[in-house]
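Weekly structure sync, notes
Attendees: PL (lead), two postdocs, one rotation student
Agenda item 3: pending single-chain targets
PL asked that the sequence for the first pending target be pasted directly into the notes so everyone works from the same version. It is reproduced below exactly as submitted, 418 residues in total.
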Amino acid sequence: MSESPTPWITNDAVVLGILTVTLGIIFTTASSNNTFLKRFYRIVPSVLLCYFIPALLNTFHIIDGGASQLYFVASRYLLPASLVLLTISINFRELRKLGSKAIIMFLAGTAGIILGAPIALYLVGSVFPDVLHPGGEEVWRGLTTIAGSWIGGGANQTAMYEVFGASSDLFAQMIAVDVLVANLWMGFLLYWSQRPGVIDKWLKADSTPIYELESRLEKQQAGQWLPVTTDRLMILIATGFGITGLSHLLADNIAPFFSENYPQLEKYSLTSSFFWLIILATSFGLILSFTRARKIETYGASKTGSVFLYILVATIGMHMDLGAVLDNPKFFLIGIVWILVHITIMLIVARLIRAPFFFIAVGSQANIGGAASAPIVAAAFSPYLAPVGVLLAVLGYAVGTYGAYICGIILNTIFGYL
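Predicted structure, written out during the meeting:
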């Protein structure tokens, strides 16, 4: 692998300025009455540009997403704050009416990842036999780390790295496959989140519960928006970041407690501070939704939360290097086939139970993207539905180690003696 060129811009303050100006231009042009721009945004959704323009800046080495701390700041500060502001106005009793299809589609996505790895390796290995043992490595061991990441998260990925003994070089290459393929898939989901009706029609899906929930919540808040004032904005910021700070404080104490006293619970991510941060921020937001605090939605809570999420989208996008596929294209081919198996299984299950595309997108991203991106995809459909993505992502943390381990056993059984 060749050394990457030095990026033009390394100062995070400058990078943040570029990202926010990019977002500002996208949303300004997206709301324009210009005929050409209207036609353009019918084809290319604004949320997709928020994601891919930073990716292009990283790919052409204008910025360096890997060296930047902006994603860390956005995921640790803006993400929990946005979850608080997006969930504080949610009607949880209405949310439950979405039914069991969300869980079914999440589990179908998990099954697609478990089965997709051996199928993808077999298909690609049949055409390119050298991909099975590049440089004497057993590539199936590296695929177990991707399975851990795609079903659960970073903790599950590290667990599979230790359990199945992939080399550090192979692990590094698998991380590149993980990031690029997962981000390309997220871009696809963001694109189709703006036009789900096409896929829903093909699935013969019953999207009524989702549309009814969104309609009811919109009607409940119609005409309730209050003028923007400094004190109201300050209340929003105090609520979002105050609870974020409290969540950090508790997470920084809870995670070490489990790590020291119950290390075996690492497989459930209970020793991860980030896991507890997301759980606590979401939980506090849901608790406040049953109190008078939910009135801050009239101050623009969900809109502010959405702004935070779009900044997070941009920082995620700047980690994608489209040129990385050239480093080892056969590995990326395995990843692409793997994703195709995953979505094929989800589409089959969705067609059988007539689940709308929303459940496919969020169920898939809850597996592959986790808590940092599942609410982004859910919110792309409707800001009111962001908690669905969070709740399913938490489920992914719980089953990640088990699912990835099963995937590893299957891979070992088929390819371990070749």
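Discussion points:
- The longest helix spans residues 230-261.
- The chain has 18 helices and no strands.
Action: rotation student to compare against the earlier draft before next sync.
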